[in-house]
Write a structure and sequence with these properties.
heterotrimer, A alpha+beta, B mainly alpha, C alpha+beta, A: alpha+beta, Fumarate Reductase Iron-sulfur Protein, Chain B, domain 2, 2 domains, 8 helices, elongated, C: Methane Monooxygenase Hydroxylase, Chain G, domain 1, five-stranded antiparallel sheet, 18 helices, 19 strands
Chain lengths: 257, 268, 647
């Protein structure tokens, strides 16, 4: 038979961007250990609604760990204590009866809180808009097999492309750095032959936008990698650093027109 | 924006500068340590080494190297300070329940260890290079007396143009300098922090210039750990030996004849 | 309602080519004078917005998520079909076309499906050029696999994340256009109504979900690509936010709703754990290649297993009912989705279900592990087993996996002609939101193909054709100041006010759950005249209750998830009834629609081609008035209708 637990939820409440925000504490009873973490929050919401209060706002959508929408720091760790898991795939059996769970929004200057646990992550989109694409207008492509790509390179690109853009790397970083996010996209596109033409331009533009959006720098401590629900490795940041250095070097010594 | 400006402005550019200047300092620290350890080979050797350092290159080149090293430190610090300010700005709020999952202690305390190391470097230069530590009277017992002794090679005084060559008695300066217990403790603590700074830095600088992957990260982390400890032990052993009396003063500068004469005089 | 499908003349293989030639073109210099509105940013919407912007049109794109990269296309795991024939195993455009029509149980429009098969190759080329990291062989060429029982290997894949990678490809193309200023992206905006001027779709009314602001957006054409309506069942594999609102609002403004009863139930989902559940998780169908599906023969045994008093491993073979192998000896555990789903339901209805709720059957890998070793199974399904363990806490290497069917995809949707234009001129519908290509049942790995076909290769032509027909003088003529906008905006606002002011006691989620329960029980895997009639009555009653006892906390001018859900549930309440009406009307069993009255003696679906080879299109006639049915006959000139058999 399913086991249940009673919990104390300490959650960040903030009305809007301008509000100061504070923690609120709620008691929850009879939570099934088979429930997902977000289902637990659903129950909390229903409880609050029944009492005439506004439910806790949080971002979520696919609930199968791929859309990257869910974003909350659970007991100090983005997406919670299980490694390689999004908050929506986290299940209550990893908590115990009587536990107090602290839930906070992503904390970073570029991610202002919109409400409660909901933050604005559009700066990540802006980084992609600056150069996170391989230009190929619909209709201009050659046959897909015209350019063989070594399996190792394709696999590496896929490892990098697994990023779901949730922003946990930024949230976990004491500097709110977006290097893992940017590095993953740069590594994905720069390593593929079809992405080479725009490689230097892409790298420089994405880094400039990343800095311009107010993300901090990388201090190589690896918290992002630990928080990443897709376990994107720090290698991607090294890749970004390397490509950036090369791009700057080429830029510096480019022929003067 | 000019490409150089954008490089200096970007977070990655500054990290690359930090890594490159870090590399200079990492190598310097090792050389410095190996040089210092020659004190265990006797006053003759360490004094000759000091003489060589000062006279191998023309004075201008020596100053060039000094400025290069100080410049590296300056760039290293400039990058660290501006990046830290940017990073603070990017993350004004902390988590109520602030946890680290895998970041090592040394990686999280680079700023703290760095700041103390800077203070140490200032003290160290004042102590041994400028020999002018405010508040420390060199006439007092146990502090540095920059005495001159003849340069000794193979047990004999080196003669140039018919005159014996004089040099600092570095051996005695060091032994003297470390007689003050709190100075020695400061040196040992500082080299301990240097060790911490290096256990992250030596591996991290490869990451910053993009020459690292998961496999090499493991290897380089180990290299950095060993490097840090070697540097710590290599440096710390000198004040420790001076305090415990293993290293002794040698007013002759390592000249056996002079030593014999001195002993004779004392016995009379 | 005019259901002219506008299928071009000529032989099947020439239709699309000649149609493209006959299209009206817009001079590149004039394209910047046109504004196109795209609602939805998934494969169809994202690709269409990017492609139209590349051509030079100004595009406004809306999505309810915080970024266009999060549309639910992202969740597709398996792959994308294309008739490349890279494997030299006899695939061709015609075979993909044939398989899709047959798989759809002969309820799809031939010409549309042929075009889909035709452009499928271009999609792969486009995606590779965009940097989608498809799986490759050591030689560097693209890898393929056979999927969903297809007899050729035509499925391209990127690990188990094909949908994600394809969406990120479209998203990156879209992002480029956003960066260039050709696309204005509206994140966290929900379309609440469509605006018609002189009968043509000329704009939308949207709500900014952060500020609650209602705004008008005018355009020369509107593209709806807002996905399917699986969430009418409350529990489905869809994302939490997936809804029918855009499509349903368009329906209320005169767009025909086609075949809503065609809903696909996927057999291998993780069973429901209790009434706190919010979502069903799909596991790849590939598991059925090695897993054996069974339920206990005896009800008592099943009861003991449910109560945890008996370890399923202790049930001897002679007490296990491997029902798929028993009923369908030649296909066995690989029987098609609809058939396996119904068989699981039968076993559970019979009281032989497992899982704590009694709604589950076993998918057992014991024999496969014994045969091939645990390592081999781990290599094949390691990530799926991990996912299963993450969700259920059971180790499927030791305890047999439990599965149950769940609503997965909806084949029905807004009616569109060959140009993907709905019955409202100027309003185009792409992806899962339209009804066009899958007939009564969708084949595995075909949803991604259709979304991208519509977005990259169909809409950019047909929308241009429409704009060309309107003439450059009409470009940008209608603005948001037109009185029609004010009128629709007032409707939208009054509806929100109404939702906010009911002041009842029951939450939107609770109503949604109750609606879902009716839909699943009475209009789910197996439907009867009685169940559907009852469902329609119950939905009507529930709708009344909804409008008198709904409780929406918070306010309308800030981020309010309760209000968002209330609006969506309100539309599901109306749409659910249409779905049931369609199911009631369709007196046959085909594909994802199974009427218990229409089955063969051994329980197989019985199609009625004489009377039901048509598209059922519903026209809105007013609140509390039954919608009108229109029929578009399906003419098969190239395929002979046959009965599916998997015995």
């Amino acid at each position: 038979m399913e086991k249940t637990m009673n919990l104390t939820i300490r959650v960040w409440r903030q009305k809007n961007r301008l509000d100061v925000g504070k923690f609120a504490e709620y008691k929850l009873a009879n939570i099934s250990e088979d429930s997902s973490f977000l289902e637990m929050l659903d129950i909390l919401s229903e409880q609050l609604v029944a009492d005439g209060h506004e439910p806790v706002a949080f971002d979520h959508d696919c609930r199968e760990g791929i859309c990257g929408m869910c974003s909350m720091t659970i007991n100090g760790i983005p997406h919670g204590p299980e490694s390689g898991t999004t908050a929506c795939q986290l299940h209550m059996r990893h908590f115990h009866d009587g536990q107090t769970i602290t839930i906070e929004p992503w904390r970073a200057k570029p991610f202002p809180v919109i409400k409660d646990l909901v933050v604005d992550r559009t700066p990540l989109d802006k980084i992609i808009q600056a150069g996170g694409f391989i230009t190929a207008r619909a209709g201009s492509a050659v046959d897909a097999n015209a350019m063989p790509i070594a399996k190792g390179i394709a696999d590496y690109a896929m490892d990098a492309a697994a990023c779901i853009g949730c922003g946990a790397c930024v949230a976990a970083c004491p500097n709110a750095s977006a290097m893992l996010f940017t590095g993953a996209k740069v590594a994905h596109m720069n390593s593929l032959p079809q992405g080479k033409a725009e490689k230097d331009r892409r790298t420089l533009a994405m880094v400039t936008t990343m800095d311009g959006e107010g993300f901090g720098g990388c201090t190589n401590i690896g918290e992002c990698e630990a928080a990443c629900p897709k376990s994107i490795p720090l290698d991607m940041i090294a890749h970004l650093n390397r490509d950036y250095a090369v791009a700057q070097m080429k830029n510096f010594f480019k022929p003067v027109a | 924006m000019c490409s150089l400006c954008s490089f200096f402005k970007s977070t990655i550019g500054r990290k690359i500068l930090m890594a490159l200047t870090g590399l200079v300092l990492v190598l310097f620290v090792m050389g410095h340590m190996l040089g210092n350890l020659q004190i265990f080979l006797g006053a003759e050797v360490i004094n000759a080494y000091a003489y060589k350092l000062h006279h191998l290159l023309p004075a201008a080149a020596l100053w060039g190297i000094r400025i290069f090293l100080l410049g590296s430190i300056a760039v290293h610090i400039w990058a660290a300070v501006t990046l830290t300010l940017d990073n603070r700005k990017a993350r004004p709020d902390r988590y109520d329940d602030d946890k680290m999952v895998q970041a090592s202690y040394s990686s999280r305390t680079m700023r703290m260890s760095g700041i103390i190391l800077l203070a140490f470097i200032v003290f160290h230069i004042a102590h041994f290079t400028a020999r002018n530590v405010p508040g420390m009277q060199y006439e007092e017992a146990g502090v540095i007396e920059p005495t001159m002794v003849p340069l000794v090679k193979h047990g004999e005084v080196v003669v140039k143009n018919g005159h014996p060559v004089d040099t600092f008695n570095v051996n005695d300066m060091m032994v003297d300098g470390f007689q003050v217990w709190w100075v020695s403790v400061f040196y040992i603590v500082a080299t301990g922090l240097l060790c911490m700074h290096l256990t992250h830095g030596v591996s991290s600088m490869f990451q910053s210039v993009g020459l690292r992957n998961a496999l090499w990260r493991k290897r380089l982390d180990r290299v950095a750990l060993v490097y840090g400890w070697v540097v710590f032990l290599g440096f710390a052993v000198i004040p420790l030996s001076a305090l415990t009396g293993i290293l002794k003063k040698d007013p002759t500068g390592g000249l056996p004849v002079a030593a014999a004469e001195i002993t004779e005089t004392l016995h009379k | 309602m005019n259901l002219d499908s506008k299928i071009p003349e000529g032989p099947l293989a020439q239709k699309w080519t000649s149609h493209k030639f006959n299209m009206k073109l817009v001079n590149p210099a004039n394209r910047r004078k046109y504004n196109v509105i795209v609602v939805g940013s998934g494969l169809a919407g994202g690709a269409a917005a990017a492609s139209l912007a590349e051509q030079g049109y100004n595009v406004s794109c809306f999505c309810y998520q915080d970024s266009p990269r999060r549309a639910h296309s992202i969740a597709a795991q398996g792959g994308i079909n294309a008739s490349k024939n890279y494997q030299n195993d006899g695939d061709s455009v015609h075979r993909l076309f044939y398989d899709t029509v047959k798989g759809g149980d002969y309820r799809a429009r031939e010409a549309n499906v042929y075009r889909l098969a035709e452009v499928s190759s271009d999609i792969i080329d486009q995606c590779v050029a965009n940097g989608v990291p498809f799986a490759r062989e050591y030689g560097g060429y693209l890898a393929n696999r056979s999927f969903g029982g297809a007899q050729v290997s035509r499925t391209f894949y990127a690990r188990g994340q094909t949908g994600q990678q394809l969406l990120l490809g479209a998203y990156s193309a879209l992002s480029k256009q956003i960066g260039l200023g050709k696309v204005k992206m509206y994140n966290r905006h929900e379309m609440l109504d469509v605006v018609k001027v002189d009968g043509h779709a000329k704009g939308v009314i949207v709500r900014n979900m952060v500020t609650g602001e209602i705004s008008r957006h005018a355009g020369d054409a509107v593209v709806i690509a807002t996905g399917g309506y699986g969430n009418v069942f409350f529990l489905s594999t869809n994302a939490q936010g997936c809804n029918v609102t855009a499509a349903h609002r368009a329906y209320r403004r005169g767009a025909g709703m086609a075949n809503p009863c065609y809903t696909q139930i996927h057999p291998t989902c993780i069973p429901v754990h209790g009434d706190q559940q919010s979502k069903l998780t799909l596991m790849s169908e590939s598991l059925r290649n090695d897993g054996r599906v069974w339920a206990p023969k005896d009800k008592e045994t099943a009861k003991k297993i449910r109560e945890g008093k008996l370890d399923p491993n202790a049930v001897p073979d002679e007490e296990r009912d491997y029902y798929l192998e028993r009923k369908y000896p030649s296909f066995g555990n690989l029987a098609p989705r609809d058939i396996s789903s119904r068989a699981a339901k039968e076993a559970c209805d019979d009281g032989r279900g497992v899982a704590t709720t009694g709604l589950g059957v076993f998918l057992d890998f014991r024999d496969a592990i014994k045969r091939d070793g645990q390592k081999a199974i781990e290599e094949r399904y390691g990530n799926l087993f991990e996912m299963y363990q993450c969700i259920t806490g059971d180790n499927p290497y030791e305890t047999p996996m439990m599965i149950f069917p769940a609503v997965h995809y909806t084949m029905g949707g807004l009616w569109v002609d060959y140009n993907l234009q709905s019955t409202i001129p100027g309003m185009f519908v792409g992806g899962e939101a339209n009804f066009s290509d899958h007939g009564a049942n969708r084949l595995g790995a075909s949803a991604l193909m259709q979304g991208l076909a519509d977005g990259y290769f169909v809409l950019p032509y047909t929308v241009g054709n429409y704009l060309g027909e309107q003439g450059v003088a009409a470009a940008g003529k209608v603005t948001a100041d037109h009185p029609a906008f004010a009128e629709v905006e007032a409707d939208v606002k009054s509806r929100i006010d109404k939702l906010m002011s009911i002041g009842g006691t029951e939450s939107p989620r609770s109503f949604h759950k109750r609606l879902g329960n009716i839909m699943w029980e009475k209009c789910g895997m197996s439907r009867t005249k009685e169940s559907l009639t009852a469902a329609i009555e119950e939905i009507q009653a529930l709708r009344k209750e909804f409008w008198s006892n709904l409780k929406v906390v918070g306010d309308a001018d800030s981020l309010n998830p309760e209000l968002e859900r209330a609006g969506r549930v309100a539309d599901f309440m109306e749409f659910g009834e249409i779905l049931c009406r369609d199911a009631l009307m369709r007196e046959e069993s085909c594909g994802g629609h199974f009427r218990a009255e229409h089955q063969t003696d051994d329980g197989e679906a019985k199609r009625d081609d004489d009377n039901f080879a048509f598209v059922g299109v519903w026209e809105y006639k007013g609140d509390d008035v039954a919608p009108a049915l229109h029929k578009e006959p399906l003419v098969y000139e190239n395929i002979k209708l046959a009965t599916r058999s998997y015995k």
